[in-house]
Design brief:
Number of strands of chain A: 10
Largest sheet of chain A: 4 strands, parallel
Shape of chain B: globular
Radius of gyration of chain A: 27 Å
Number of helices of chain B: 15
Order of helices and strands of chain A: HEEEHEHEHEHHEHEHEHHEHH
CATH topology of chain B: ABC transporter involved in vitamin B12 uptake, BtuC
Helix content of chain A: 40-55%
Strand content of chain B: under 5%
Largest sheet of chain B: 2 strands, antiparallel
CATH class of the largest domain in chain A: Alpha Beta
CATH architecture of the largest domain in chain A: 3-Layer(aba) Sandwich
Helix content of chain B: over 70%
Number of strands of chain B: 2
Strand order of the largest sheet of chain B: 1-2
Strand order of the largest sheet of chain A: 4-3-5-6
Oligomer: heterodimer
CATH class of chain B: Mainly Alpha
Chain lengths: ~300, ~350
């Protein structure tokens, strides 16, 4: 009788509740410590791990900056590129360099927990170097209008503003569908978009402007060129006789007269003869940001003035 | 002034080494983010000793991962290009020779551009590897055409090198004319010489070639002296002239190939440093080679520091500074003609 094995205390209801609660808090504390960091797959297939949600974000391109501000971020934006000019507030942020030259010291000094870069503009070497320095880099790579919507969602997910991102693209989709609806039965004018002066560079398949032309109900005369930014000589343009010419410029008000004068030498081009030479802000048709839909609407107005009387 | 003794070489080398260390220390205290100079130096010394105390993590990253690798790489390339220039000047017996004369740099550039256009720049080592391969191919081609009757003739080599270089330059222009906007940025910046990607990995890859090349050429200093007085004289004095020409050609080209693969084209260093050293210390290679290496290192580190601070926050390509300093100096050299006499 004296050497019976010890008995465990009976599992009373109180004890059971108590141990389950303890177990629950243990599991909770583990999951809290792991949810400090999250891993996302970016648009070029890389796995990126960073503290979530990120509180110090650096943007390496103007479109990314516009998207971040559009999602309602401000204090979280720790650095932008020197090209970032919209919204006005972007100009007050710390500048960390350009497409050609990143100021790695500046980036290091603002201690970002996430850097967002774009495949069109930032180079692989830059991304590698930043990763070597210990900074996670999320790369987007939109190639057409639909991709831009996707990129806005991805950035929204990555900065914990997915809801706001979906609101933005819902608006963009609605406006673009309206443009398609209003222009769908109209004939497609031949369009030439000029984005460079010497040499004359236009937009081919794979550029945003080409996609916009298609959606806005036009036909890009360079739309079959396999290069994204083909170089055309004047002979080629004369041969393809565009009915509308759109010049993409960083300084639309300043350049207009000069550009118009240049084109007026070639009166055999239908667009020049009919006075359909327009100038647009390049930020609106070449930048993959929420404002691309503004560019789309402006372009539609230029291509189909009869339909969009305002 | 013209007698070279081991003691003289040692003294001057120590003096130039101290200068180099000073230049390195100054360069790590300068940058787009203000870090107090004393703290930068403390961070450097503490990391050498394996300690961690000074400075915040950010400052340590800036000094140790950004400025220091950049200074070391610039120093290595400066030393390499200077010694390579001196070797080519001896090999071709021509004061106008520099590391890029025989087309190696154009070959490296073509390799790099092809890699960029094929999208191979997406592999981290893609660009340096491709440009090194381009350089090696050029070395072989020029060597093959530079020989006559199985021997290397300086004038034939020069001609072969210049013509190959011109052809490759035409190729470069062709590639530039057909490349797209994004690629152009990368290509042009690479062609202008750029240290902004300096990383410890780049240093590890480059330094064996440069150190080995410089050291092996230094061992041949006496022979290089003799070959300057003419090949027949050198043969009579017991120098295996063909082997010397082959070795100096290969070593100098390899150094150049490694340098260009690491940071693009940086001109004038290989030309003005050897001549400057000759003006000060004389043409004896036993003194010329170590002095050119040390002085070239200091010069390029200083030029790179200037390049990134003169127009801050814009970074000038370092080739702009070396050309701006080198061009006028070269004209001065031509007018005084002191150099041509001593060579």
């Amino acid at each position: 009788m004296k050497n019976l094995p010890p008995k465990f205390p009976p599992l009373t209801p109180a004890l059971r509740t108590g141990s389950l609660t303890l177990l629950f808090f243990l599991i909770l504390s583990f999951s809290i410590s792991y949810s400090a960091e999250r891993t996302f797959k970016d648009e070029v297939g890389r796995e990126v791990t960073f503290p979530f949600p990120p509180k110090r974000i650096v943007s390496l391109a103007p479109n990314i900056t516009e998207i971040l501000f559009g999602l309602g971020l401000d204090g979280e934006i720790a650095g932008v590129s020197i090209h970032c000019n919209f919204p006005e507030k972007a100009k007050t942020k710390v500048r960390v360099g350009s497409y050609i030259n990143l100021d790695y010291e500046k980036i290091t000094s603002v201690t970002p927990d996430l850097i967002i870069a774009t495949g069109a503009g930032n180079t692989r070497e830059m991304v590698d170097r930043l990763e070597q320095l210990g900074f996670p880099v999320y790369v987007i790579h939109p190639k057409n209008f639909e991709d831009i919507l996707e990129s806005i969602i991805h950035i929204g997910q990555v900065v914990n503003r997915e809801k706001e991102a979906r609101v933005i693209i819902k608006g963009m989709k609605k406006r673009s569908l309206r443009v398609i609806e209003l222009t769908k039965d109209l004939p497609r004018p031949k369009v030439f978009v000029q984005i460079g002066d010497a040499p004359m560079v236009t937009v081919g398949k794979g550029s945003f402007a080409d996609d916009l032309i298609r959606i806005a109900g036009g036909e890009n005369i360079a739309g079959n060129e396999k290069e994204v930014y083909p170089r055309f000589g004047m002979e080629e343009i004369l041969k393809r006789s565009p009915e509308v010419i759109v010049i993409s410029s960083m300084n639309p008000e300043g350049d207009y007269q000069k550009v118009l004068q240049e084109w007026n030498r070639w009166k055999t081009i239908p667009a020049v003869k009919d006075g359909r030479v327009h100038i647009m802000n390049s930020d609106l048709i070449d930048r993959p940001s929420p404002r691309i839909v503004d560019g789309l609407e402006d372009l539609a107005r230029i291509l189909h003035p009869e339909r969009f009387k305002k | 002034m013209n007698i070279v003794t081991p003691k003289k070489v040692l003294t001057i080398s120590i003096f130039l080494s101290l200068l180099l260390i000073l230049v390195i220390l100054i360069s790590i205290t300068i940058g787009s983010v203000k870090v107090p100079p004393l703290r930068s130096i403390r961070i450097l010394f503490q990391s050498i000793l394996g300690l961690r105390g000074a400075g915040s993590d950010t400052e340590r990253t800036i000094i140790l991962s950004l400025r220091l690798p950049r200074a070391i790489l610039a120093g290595l390339v400066g030393a390499g290009l200077s010694v390579s220039g001196a070797a080519f000047q001896a090999l071709l017996r021509n004061p106008l020779a520099d590391p890029y004369l025989l087309g190696v740099s154009s070959g490296a550039a073509v390799g790099a551009i092809i890699a960029i256009l094929l999208g191979l720049g997406t592999f981290s080592l893609g660009l340096p590897l491709a440009s090194f391969l381009g350089a090696l191919l050029t070395i072989l081609v020029v060597f093959y055409f530079g020989r006559q009757d199985g021997k290397i003739r300086p004038n034939t080599l020069l001609l072969a090198g210049v013509i190959t270089g011109s052809f490759l330059s035409a190729l470069i222009m062709f590639f530039i004319s057909v490349s797209q906007r994004e690629e152009l940025h990368t290509i042009i910046f690479w062609l202008m010489g750029d240290f902004s990607f300096s990383s410890p990995r780049a240093i590890l890859i480059i330094f064996p070639y440069i150190l080995l090349g410089v050291f092996l050429l230094y061992l041949r200093s006496r022979h290089l002296n003799l070959i300057l007085s003419g090949e027949e004289n050198a043969v009579q004095l017991g120098v295996d002239v063909e082997k010397l020409k082959l070795l100096s050609y290969l070593l100098a080209s390899l150094i150049t190939a490694a340098s260009v693969s690491a940071c693009g084209l940086i001109g004038f260093v290989g030309l003005i440093i050897p001549h400057s050293v000759r003006l000060i210390f004389g043409p004896d290679h036993r003194l010329l080679i170590p002095s050119a290496a040390l002085l070239g290192a200091s010069f390029l580190i200083a030029s790179d520091t200037l390049a990134r601070t003169l127009l801050a926050p814009v970074e000038l390509p370092v080739g702009v500074i070396t050309a701006a300093l080198g061009g006028p100096f070269f004209i001065y050299l031509l007018r005084t003609r002191k150099v041509i006499k001593t060579l």
